[in-house]
Structures are given as structure tokens and as C-alpha cells.
Predict the structure.
Amino acid sequence: MQIIHGTGFNEQEIIEYRTQIYENILKGMVYLINGKTHLGLPWGDHTTIRMKQVVSEYRVIFKSLIDDRESDAKRLGEKIPIFPEQFLANNLVNLVHELWSEESIRQAFERRREFPKYFVENVPYYIENLDRIARKNI
């Protein structure tokens, strides 16, 4: 309603919404990676070694931006945002694009109802608009 009525969002609301979107992208991709494994979908023949490297790099970033941050937030009793600089660091945007371009990840998305966990349905939209979402000044 804030957009419709022209009031926009204050800086704190932008930080909170941005963090939620970043979390959805990061967690959504992990669910797809795990779902791919759960469904027994193989990596493409020519991409197996590279995709294993991409997943390994992605999990390190995920641990830092999600697991460690959530653990720190719980310990401190406060929310800790994810800032664009953090999201843009470590080649994350390129890793997400590379994962999303992999056929087995797309197949996992198509079969997401077979996963044991809930999946955020708007993750493909976020990934397809990732370059715009990841910009510092939106």
C-alpha cells in the first residue's frame, strides 16, 4: 500500500525487505540443490566437476550469510541484515546464475512438490531479476 499511495519505504524497511529477498534467493537455491540430490538428478555430463565446485563455493557463502548470521542474531537477540555489499561479494550473483542455468536445477524446480521442505515459489522471479535486485541503489 505504501507504493500505491506514494509514501514509499523508509531506509529501515528497505533494509528489512532487501534482507528477506536475499534470504529467499539464498535458501531457495539451497533447497533446489538439496532437492536435486533428493530426486537423484545428475549434473550434466560436461558440468559435473564445475558444478561441484560451484556448489561448494555457494555453501561457504550460504554458511556465512545465512547460518552464521542467524546464529549471531539469535545470540544477540536482534535481527542482522544482509547488505548489498555482502550479497555482491564472493561472486555470489554469478554462482546463482550458473546454478540456475544448470538443467538438473531447473528440473528440481519443476519437481519441487516432491521435496521434503517448503519451497518459496517466487525464487525463479528473484533469480531471473537477480542483476537488478543485487544492485546497491534500487
Notes: The chain has a mean pLDDT of 87. The first helix runs from residue 11 to 38. The helical segments are 11-38, 48-76, 84-88, 92-101, 103-110, 123-128, 130-133.
